[in-house]
Amino acid sequence: MNNDLTTKREHLSSILKSYGSLIVAYSGGVDSTFLLATAHEALKKNMVAITATSPLHPVKESQEAKAFSQKLGINHLFVKSREMSQSDFTANTKRRCYLCKKYLFKDLLKIARDKNIEYVAHGANVDDLEDFRPGFDAAREMNIMAPMVDAGLTKNDIRTLSKQMNLNTWNKPPMSCLATRIPYGTQITIEKLKMIERAEQVILDLGVTSCRVRVHDKAARIEVDPGDIEKILDQGIRSTIVGKLREIGFSYVAVDLEGYEQGKMNRDI
Prior knowledge:
Blueprint: H1 3-19, E1 22-25, H2 30-43, E2 47-53, H3 59-72, E3 76-80, H4 87-90, H5 96-114, E4 119-121, H6 134-141, H7 147-150, H8 155-164, H9 190-204, E5 211-216, E6 219-224, H10 226-232, H11 235-248, E7 252-255
Parallel strand pairs: 1-2, 1-4, 2-3, 6-7
Antiparallel strand pairs: 5-6
Helix pairs in contact: 1-2, 5-6, 9-11
């Protein structure tokens, strides 16, 4: 481990210990898994992991989060999030992420008060600050901690440290909530979210690294890593994808030749 990474990890551990007790908002992704594992080392039994269950998040993600926390013996709770019952969220304005995080953090802060836990933290890193992330505004307003930002950790830092800690998430593809596949201004419905989840699983099962299925009315626009585009355009695989996505409910199936890029749906903002 180089000196810079050693310093950052030690700084993160010091920050976490200063909290005394902590709830970690735990999605099961690269960032929150590293934060959880480090918080567990620093705080032992004085921390709780909480995962939100929602149609916005693939069931597989919650299952993987549960398995990891059980492996480490971490106190892990699931809470049913409530954003899908809120009309201001399902309207899918540019405040969508802000509203979602506002509802979630409000619930986590209530749990923290009930359990006499001092702080709640989420897995933001320094690189996240460069993207359009209105959810961070909600976190700051509600005094949700971002210890990895405070420690100066980038996404690459987190992946490197995760690998050194033997966390199997170190090379996990980035994952965001399924609502990010729906253009702003288009109503978010459970039906659309289920279609997206099923469609993405179809493509992931073919062995691609990562994918997004963006929904444009009845059309599915598939994004995969540029190196996987040729693979899914193979005649046999292409026919399989089209057939299965038509069964799911899409009338049209298209491949984005640019490939997957994080935050692409924010380009018009």
